[in-house]
Design a protein that fits this description.
By secondary structure, this protein is of the alpha+beta class. It has two domains: about 90 residues; about 150 residues, NADH Oxidase, CATH 3.40.109.10. It is built from twelve helices and four strands; from the N terminus they run H-H-H-H-H-H-H-H-H-E-H-E-H-E-H-E. It starts with a helix and ends in a 22-residue tail after the last strand. The relative contact order is 0.13.
Length: about 325
C-alpha cells in the first residue's frame, strides 16, 4: 500500500514543490518590484520619491543636523519630482513633500544651496495644496510621552485573545474606519506605508473568502467583517524582497490592538497558501497581483461570556539572547 504522507514529505517531492512555489514568488516579485521600470509606473515612482523625502526628514531629526546638509540627495529628489510631475501632474505626493522642503529650507536658512531653492521654486510655482500636511520635525518631550503612554499595556496585551465565538451583532463601519485610522501610525520602511486593507462585509463575498481560507470552520459565520491586509511590492527594491511581510506584519498587529482598544474581538487567519490558492485570491476577490497577502483578520463583537484557547506562551528567556 502506497504511503501518501511519506511520498508527500519525500525530500525530492518537497524540493520540486518548493521550487514551483519559489518560481511563482520570483515571477510575482520580478513583475512588480520597484527597481524595474520606475518612471513607467506611478506607484513605483511615488515610492522611490517618498524614500528620498523621508531621508530629508530623518536628517532634520538628527541630534545636530548640519545646515545645508544633503545637497546632492535633495537635488536628486527635486529632479525626480520634476519628472514625476511631467508624467502624472500634481497629486498628494506634492502635498506631502512641500512642507518637508519648507522645513529644510527654513532650517538651513542662508546656507541653503541656491540650486535647491531655484529647483524648489520652479517645482512648486503653480502648486495649490489639496491636503493640509505637516512635514519636517516637531519637538516632543519625555514628560508628554510618559503622560500619554501611562497605560497598563501588559494587561491590555494579556487581555487580547484570538476569538472564535463572536456575538453575531453587527459592527458599525465607523469602528472599523477608526481602527484603520489608529493603525496608520504603524511604522514602515522609510514611511512608505505600503499596506492596503480590504474590508469584506458583504455576506456572500465574505462567506466565499472565508471558505477560501478554510481555517475558520465552526465560527466563520459569526465573523462580522473580514479584513485582508496586503502590501504593495511596487514600494520595494532589490534589497527588500521580504520587507513587505515585515511592514505588513507590523501594521496587522497594530490594527488588531486598535480593534482591541475599541472593544472588538479579532482572530488572525493565515493566508499563507500554495500559489494555486493565492491565484484564486487575486482572480476572485479583486486583490491586485502586485500586493502580497499578509493576514486575514476576522472581526466581531464579543459575547458577555465565551471560551478562548489558553495557548500558553513560551517563557521569554527561551528566545531572548543578551549580547
Amino acid at each position: 500500500m502506497i504511503n501518501k504522507e511519506k511520498i508527500k514529505n519525500n525530500r525530492l517531492v518537497v524540493s520540486i514543490r518548493l521550487f514551483i512555489e519559489m518560481l511563482y514568488d520570483y515571477k510575482r516579485l520580478i513583475n512588480n518590484i520597484g527597481a524595474i521600470g520606475i518612471e513607467k509606473d506611478r506607484e513605483k515612482f511615488y515610492a522611490n520619491i517618498l524614500i528620498g523625502i523621508h531621508s530629508i526628514e530623518k536628517g532634520l531629526s538628527l541630534p545636530e543636523p548640519r545646515a545645508g546638509f544633503g545637497k546632492l540627495k535633495i537635488l536628486n529628489v527635486l529632479s525626480l519630482m520634476r519628472s514625476y510631475k511631467e508624467y502624472y501632474g500634481y497629486d498628494n505626493l506634492f502635498d506631502l513633500a512641500k512642507p518637508v522642503f519648507d522645513a529644510y529650507i527654513s532650517f538651513s536658512g542662508e546656507k541653503t544651496d541656491r540650486e535647491i531653492v531655484n529647483r524648489y521654486n520652479d517645482l512648486f510655482e503653480n502648486f495649490s495644496p489639496e491636503l493640509s500636511c505637516l512635514g519636517g520635525t516637531m519637538q516632543v518631550s519625555k514628560i508628554d510621552i510618559f503622560k500619554y503612554s501611562k497605560v497598563d499595556f501588559a494587561t491590555f496585551c494579556d487581555k487580547r485573545f484570538s476569538v472564535r465565538d463572536f456575538s453575531g451583532l453587527l459592527v458599525d463601519l465607523d469602528l472599523i474606519k477608526e481602527a484603520v485610522r489608529i493603525a496608520s501610525k504603524s511604522p514602515s520602511a522609510c514611511n512608505r506605508q505600503p499596506w492596503h486593507i480590504y474590508a469584506f462585509r458583504d455576506i456572500i463575498i465574505k462567506s466565499e473568502l472565508l471558505d477560501w481560507q478554510l481555517g475558520n470552520k465552526g465560527f466563520g459565520n459569526t465573523i462580522d467583517t473580514a479584513l485582508l491586509i496586503t502590501c504593495n511590492l511596487k514600494s520595494y527594491f532589490i534589497n527588500e524582497s521580504h520587507q513587505a511581510y515585515v511592514d505588513g506584519g507590523l501594521y496587522a498587529m497594530t490594527l488588531m490592538y486598535a480593534l482591541h482598544s475599541l472593544g472588538l474581538g479579532t482572530i488572525p487567519l493565515t493566508v499563507a497558501m500554495m500559489s494555486s490558492k493565492t491565484k484564486i485570491l487575486y482572480r476572485k476577490f479583486g486583490v491586485k497581483e502586485n500586493e502580497v497577502p499578509i493576514v486575514l483578520i476576522g472581526v466581531g463583537h464579543l459575547k458577555d461570556i465565551f471560551n478562548v484557547a489558553i495557548s500558553e506562551r513560551f517563557a521569554y528567556s527561551n528566545y531572548l539572547t543578551i549580547i
